[in-house]
Design goal:
By secondary structure, this protein is an alpha/beta fold. It has 10 helices and 13 strands. The strands form 4 sheets. It has a 5-stranded mixed sheet, with helices on both faces. Strands 8-13-12-11 form a 4-stranded mixed sheet, sandwiched between helices. It starts with a strand and ends with a strand. It binds acetyl coenzyme *A. Acetyl coenzyme *A binds next to helix 2, helix 6, helix 7 and strand 12. The site of acetyl coenzyme *A has 21 residues, from helix 2, helix 6, helix 7 and strand 12.
């Protein structure tokens, strides 16, 4: 018994922010952003609609796509690093909103690897025979963690959510890989609340995201091919048997560099980051949902999904659609 994805959904805010829009608030240009990252525009959440609202919309669409009722869900995991509240968790808010009265729900924090880690975690419960039906969500609104005066980060990110309904079936997840290196966490970080209490005499303050761009670039183009190669080797699968490599949508140049290193043509590495930027935990399920709804996936296709990001964390899953 394994875990099969039986439906997908996604949601993005209505507000489109183009590279030209950003050039009005920081010293940058459409040309710089496009040539360095491939990004043309991104969606930015409104004050009223944060991570939870996007996650709920994506979840509803995934359930509809899977023809599964909310009461059938046993578990909901939301991969996010930008939950609207410390508690309740975003997953519990989704559970309440959609009426998944029989599901346990919790968030999982693995930055841009969040969806892959959440999928692999739900799979572990299903494989162990504990649960049968799950909802896996990746959702982030990093726009609220960004310093909008820092041109080196603010041009890269966008807000979105993607979701997949999964069920215990004979075909589905074939193999998985996950890893972390906490000793290098400082290359991509976002401070939480500072210690503010009656002893320190300070108010808690929230930190912004910071990133050593070139270090993240090097980490991604080295670790992702290594992880995928291990995944294929351990599952005795040839890379020629994989229809699509669905990579975390951080930067077009990262995808291109992975394509060259692995000798995989770019038509097998789909991208949509030109329209959404880096949507962190949402990027893989957002792309998967677009591909699913565009009819690009057929039963039996082998796909690799690979995420990488803050932590540092990385993970990959080989599935049969
Ligand atoms: N517009 C114009 N100029 C800029 C901008 C901007 N938005 N940002 C930086 N610059 C300038 C810098 O100040 C620097 O100027 P200087 O030469 O006068 O000092 C120059 O451009 C080059 O800066 P670098 O940081 O060296 O630019 P680089 O070519 O490395 O590109 C980038 C930066 C796009 C961030 C790249 O390092 C990268 O793609 N890194 C991967 C990181 C990534 O994708 N992170 C996403 C989040 S992580 C994740 O999802 C896992």
């Amino acid at each position: 018994m394994t875990t099969r994805i039986i439906g997908t959904g996604s949601a993005v805010p209505n507000q489109i922010v183009t590279n030209d829009d950003l050039s009005k608030i920081v010293e940058t240009s459409d040309e710089w952003i496009r040539t360095r990252t491939g990004i043309r525009e991104r969606r930015i959440a409104s004050a009223q609609s944060g991570t939870t609202a996007l996650a709920i919309e994506a979840a509803r669409k995934a359930l509809e796509n899977a023809h599964v009722a909310p009461e059938e869900l046993d578990i909901i995991i939301l991969g996010t690093s930008s939950a609207d509240c410390c508690f309740p968790s975003g997953a519990c808010e989704v559970q309440g909103a959609i009426g998944a009265v029989n599901a346990v729900a919790f968030d999982l924090s693995a930055a841009c690897s969040g969806f892959v880690f959440a999928l692999n975690t739900v799979h572990s419960f299903i494989k162990a025979g504990i649960y049968k039906t799950g909802l896996v969500i990746g959702a982030d609104t990093l726009s609220k963690l960004i310093d909008w005066t820092d041109r080196s980060t603010c041009v890269l990110f966008g807000d979105a959510a993607g979701a997949a309904v999964v069920r215990a079936e004979e075909q589905g997840i074939i193999h998985l890989e996950m890893g972390a290196d906490g000793s290098r966490g400082n290359v991509l970080e976002c401070g939480g609340r500072t210690t503010g209490n009656f002893l320190t005499g300070q108010k808690p303050e929230l930190g912004y995201m910071s990133m050593e761009g070139q270090e993240v670039f090097k980490f991604a183009v080295k670790t992702v091919p290594e992880t995928i190669n291990r995944l294929l080797e351990e599952s005795q699968t040839s890379k020629d048997d994989i229809k699509y490599f669905i990579l975390h949508q951080a930067n077009y140049r990262i995808c291109e560099s992975i394509s060259k290193r692995m000798k995989i043509s770019m038509d097998r590495i789909p991208t949509n980051l030109e329209n959404y930027g880096n949507t962190s935990g949402a990027s893989i399920p957002l792309l998967l949902d677009e591909m699913n709804r565009a009819g690009m996936l057929s039963r039996g296709d082998k796909l690799v999904m690979a995420g990488f990001g803050g932590g540092l964390t990385w993970g990959a899953t080989l599935i049969e659609w």
